[in-house]
Design brief:
The complex is a heterodimer of chains A (264) and B (221).
Chain A (H helix, E strand, L loop, with lengths): L11 E10 L2 E11 L4 E5 L6 H8 L7 E6 L2 E2 L13 H8 L2 E4 L11 H11 L5 H14 L15 H13 L5 E5 L7 H16 L4 E4 L3 H7 L2 E6 L2 E6 L1 H4 L7 H14 L1
Helix pairs in contact in A: 3-4, 3-5, 4-5, 5-6
Chain B lengths: L7 H5 L1 H35 L2 H16 L2 H15 L6 H27 L2 H9 L4 H31 L11 H12 L2 H32 L2
The chains are: A alpha/beta (264), B mainly alpha (221).
Chain lengths: 264, 221
């Protein structure tokens, strides 16, 4: 069982990943690399496999074939010839290396803002209560919620909850942050505060893979944009190239036209 | 109405009712405590187990829920000792029965609570790298408890009232005390009025306490 680091310089290296739910192929031989410090945005019509792709990266979803490596290490399966699923303990350890922020926040309702952040720090990272608390306070400060450390999720607005969600993920010092439509459940006036936090993390050099419908944000904040359609990577490139109205990719053109029609 | 209420005889024998109430509470508390352990263990096992274990647990729950408690009490107290070499007192026998009985009801309460924990919270637990046990302990069980508290309160009150069935095997709890006074004083209306009031007040106090706990947890949502 050799787990030699992959020669690829990419932090996240997905190769030919395929997955089907029954007869429906959600991912068809998807390959995607994300380098350290890169912000890669995934766009595409709903049902194109964006969220599934993201959930495969930290193995919240299994995949049928192909490989996903983070820092050269295969995520969900042992590197044996038989493609054996890793033990739950190994999977937990792997997942601790990736952070995830969810569309519906998914804060633990019985824990305060600080408590939500401290859970992983104490139970997974083995930090002492006091140290975990000060890390939690530091990150709550970073997302502008220092004064809400002892508030329960129910006492916070959607935007505030999502910022706690981000703080919970980054406090674990993940190698890569996965953001799954993190502003889709927010009222329009709360979107800005959340995106500002993401922006500042990007400026700090956090590696991110982000599914979003915020085209303006994707354009301004991404190193590259991935366009997915029907479970395939249909186009990849710098924002300018992908979001250009005169693209030759027909599916992308239709998607962008439809998007513009509904948003402007 | 030609019947004149006279409570004097009731007060003279009130120790039978008071002592009975204390025993009722004791039977309820022990049975519920054991029932909670049975319920929690089986519910957690159920949601993570395969078909066979699920079928066995479901069979236990269905059996208990479809047989009257009084019958189970007779079965355990009179039936079981004749089949196997066991000897136990009436109160012990009743606690045994009510524990197994409450366990079945509580499995259902806890199981539906575990199922009702939003999937996203479990995903969040996975995403920060918690192991399955840690997710159960720190994410799923606390969330489940908040969801099930109202149903749990109802079950507890109901089980407290079920202790009255112990009177059929002469356990000197509240209802048995009431019967004793009735047989010895013939003040049937008075004794059952007082006994009813005692069940009511105790039930209300329990409910009030449990609602306080619920409110604390709801505030923490």
């Amino acid at each position: 069982m050799s787990e030699a680091p992959n020669a690829s310089p990419a932090l996240l290296d997905m190769r030919d990943v395929s997955k089907a739910f029954g007869a429906v192929e959600v991912l068809r031989s998807v390959s995607l690399q994300v380098k350290r410090g890169e912000v890669v945005t995934v766009i595409g019509p709903s049902g194109s496999g964006k969220t599934t792709l993201l959930r495969c990266v930290n193995f919240l979803e299994s995949y049928d074939s192909g490989s996903i490596r983070i820092d050269g290490k295969e995520v969900g399966f042992r590197e044996t010839a038989t493609r054996q699923r890793r033990s739950e303990r190994d999977l937990a350890a792997m997942r601790a290396e990736t952070g995830m922020v969810f569309q519906s926040f998914n804060l633990f309702p019985h824990l305060t803002a600080a408590g939500n952040i401290m859970l992983g720090l104490t139970k997974v990272r083995g930090k002492k209560e006091a140290e975990a608390r000060s890390i939690a306070e530091h990150w709550l400060g970073r997302v502008g919620l220092a004064h809400k450390a002892d508030s329960l999720p129910a006492e916070l607005s959607g935007g505030q909850q999502q910022r706690v969600g981000i703080a919970r993920a980054v406090a674990m010092e993940p190698k890569i942050l996965l953001l799954d439509e993190i502003t889709s459940a927010l009222d329009p006036e709360l979107v800005g505060e959340v995106l500002a936090v993401v922006r500042s993390l990007a400026d700090d050099g956090m590696t991110m893979l982000m599914v979003t419908h915020e085209m303006a944000f994707a354009r301004d904040a991404s190193s590259r944009i991935v366009f997915m359609a029907d479970g395939e990577v249909s186009a990849v490139g710098p924002p300018k190239e992908i979001l250009a109205a005169e693209t030759s990719n027909e599916r992308l053109r239709t998607f962008l036209a439809r998007f513009r029609a509904s948003h402007f | 109405m030609g019947y004149a209420l006279n409570f004097n005889l009731i007060w003279r024998h009130f120790d039978k009712l008071w002592g009975g109430l204390l025993l009722s509470l004791e039977l309820a508390v022990i049975s519920i405590a054991v029932g909670v352990v049975i319920g929690l263990v089986l519910a957690v096992w159920y949601v993570s187990a395969g078909r066979v274990v699920r079928a066995v647990i479901a069979a236990y729950v269905e059996f208990i829920r479809n047989v009257p408690l009084i019958l189970l009490v007779y079965l355990v107290f009179y039936g079981l000792p004749t089949v196997v070499d066991l000897a136990y007192s009436a109160p012990t026998s009743f606690v045994l029965t009510l524990s197994v009985y409450s366990g079945a009801y509580l499995v259902e309460v806890f199981r539906s609570g575990l199922d009702a924990v939003p999937r996203g919270q479990l995903d969040a637990g996975k995403a920060i790298g918690l192991t399955p046990w840690q997710r159960l302990l720190h994410v799923r069980l606390p969330a489940m408890l908040r969801i099930t508290l109202p149903a749990l309160s109802n079950t507890f009150i109901s089980l407290f009232k079920d202790t009255s069935i112990a009177s059929v095997i002469s356990v000197p709890e509240l209802t048995f005390g009431a019967q004793w006074i009735n047989f010895n004083t013939f003040r049937i209306v008075e004794v059952y009025l007082v006994t009813t009031a005692m069940y009511l007040v105790t039930g209300y106090i329990m409910l009030f306490g449990l609602r306080l706990v619920e409110r604390r947890f709801r505030a923490a949502r």
